[in-house]
Design goal:
- Keywords: GTP-binding, Kinase, Mitochondrion, Nucleotide-binding, Transferase.
- Involved in maintaining the homeostasis of cellular nucleotides by catalyzing the interconversion of nucleoside phosphates. Has GTP:AMP phosphotransferase and ITP:AMP phosphotransferase activities.
- Monomer.
- It comes from Pan troglodytes.
- The chain contains seven helices and seven strands.
- The chain is an alpha/beta fold and about 200 residues long.
- It has a domain of about 140 residues: P-loop containing nucleotide triphosphate hydrolases (Rossmann fold), CATH 3.40.50.300.
- A five-stranded parallel beta sheet has the order 2-3-1-4-7, sandwiched between helices.
- A hairpin with a 4-residue loop joins strand 5 and strand 6.
- The chain is globular and about 60 Å long.
- The two termini are about 35 Å apart.
- It binds adenosine monophosphate (AMP).
- The site of adenosine monophosphate has 12 residues, from helix 2 and helix 3.
Length: about 200
């Protein structure tokens, strides 16, 4: 990297099932920048049994967000180790206070928002059916069973995981939208050069 090259500070946003993980890994494979995923960061802490990990587990198990002050401290602490790198943040910021705290610490150059229609995500996320006894997984689109709703080998009925049921998926997507709407509005309102807001529509 040349001496005059600037470091890129980027954020990627997108609902569960929007393809955020895939897009992020494509970007980080082709460009020299660090990928920091808040979910991975929390899961790492949980695995290591750190104080934050124990706290995070209690919230994640209840399907709740980690409190803003804890999450912000953790993310900013991690970013301190990456000052000499370009980075792409994934999963953080998730709320307005987190976005404001990040803004106070760093100038964000770009926000990529993957705007995938609810219907498309719902189709993707609800396409998975499993045979509970064996754990065999089918996907209605890519790997369908020979007969709809029936396991190929045993002839037993397939089920959908609680997480993959349309009503659960819709609830998760709605919660994501409610949380992140203020964050997106905040970024859309930032006009300071060279801020770039990228909206990718599917
Ligand atoms: P993810 O892998 O991004 O879906 O994150 C898994 C879980 O970690 C989420 O359901 C939240 O409970 C928690 N989490 C991840 N990122 C954040 C964040 N920025 N703020 C609060 N909680 C978070």
């Amino acid at each position: 990297m040349g001496a005059s090259a600037r470091l890129l500070r980027a954020v990627i946003m997108g609902a569960p099932g929007s393809g955020k993980g895939t897009v992020s890994s494509r970007i980080t494979t082709h460009f020299e920048l660090k990928h920091l995923s808040s979910g991975d960061l929390l899961r790492g802490n949980m695995l290591r049994g750190t104080e934050i990990g124990v706290l995070a587990k209690a919230f994640i198990d209840q399907g709740k967000l980690i409190p803003d002050d804890v999450m912000t401290r953790l993310a900013l602490h991690e970013l301190k180790n990456l000052t000499q790198y370009s980075w792409l943040l994934d999963g953080f910021p998730r709320t307005l206070p987190q976005a404001e705290a990040l803004h106070r610490a760093y100038q964000i150059d770009t926000v990529i928002n993957l705007n995938v229609p609810f219907e498309v995500i719902k189709q993707r996320l609800t396409a998975r059916w499993i045979h509970p006894a064996s754990g065999r997984v089918y996907n209605i689109e890519f790997n369908p069973p020979k007969t709809v709703g029936i396991d190929d080998l045993t002839g037993e009925p397939l089920i959908q995981r609680e997480d993959d049921k349309p009503e659960t998926v819709i609830k998760r997507l709605k919660a994501y939208e409610d949380q992140t709407k203020p964050v997106l509005e905040y970024y859309q309102g930032l006009t300071a050069s060279p801020f770039i807001y990228v909206l990718i529509e599917y």
